[in-house]
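User: Could you check the structure of this?
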Amino acid sequence: MINVVLTSGGLNSAILLYHVLHDCVADSGSVYPLTIGYDQSNYAAERSSLYELTMINLRGLVRPPLVHKLDIISRVKKQFPQFRVEEPPTYAPNLNMMMISIAASVGEMLSRNKEPVLIWSGISREKETRYWDCSEEFINNINWSFSRNSERKVRVITPFIRFDKDQMVLRGESLGVSFESTWSCIKGDRTVGPCGKCESCIDRKEAFESAMVEDPLERTKK
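Assistant: Sure, the predicted structure tokens are below.
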């Protein structure tokens, strides 16, 4: 079995990575974290966070992350700025579709002996309410498309798609996730800490408060 885990260094993907390693996969050698850069403003902070998670906190348990640079979004923005659709700052058009397709391609290449490929995604219920490509219907349709693959079995797994924010944090706490190594902010940098004002910071704060768990990144700011 080939397990490709979509990771960013953020809260959901960190919880997902711990979940896959500790609860789902006995052979950690078959777990491949995949991070995709699409010119997001916090890419450097995410990469740094992911390095800490995989190379320090999960040392020896997981392979170094595979990195893919997806620059088509930034190139279109630069070439056709007048056609840019105004969306929330955390939304990128068709991003999940592209990331899942890339993960499927990577998984098939790693599956030299035609082992089944599982693509793990950390999307949760709160994402589904805001982004069309984070819904169960979307994932079901993607999996139907992958079922047409007659050479290899490829499937997207979303273990937290019915989880609320607080459930995600509690799940992470039960797994011993290194929350201090995760990064959610889309504006700040890791040298000065999260901004506390962007959409992602607000979501993160609400998640920890709802779960009644202290966020170590908030503690370091005090």
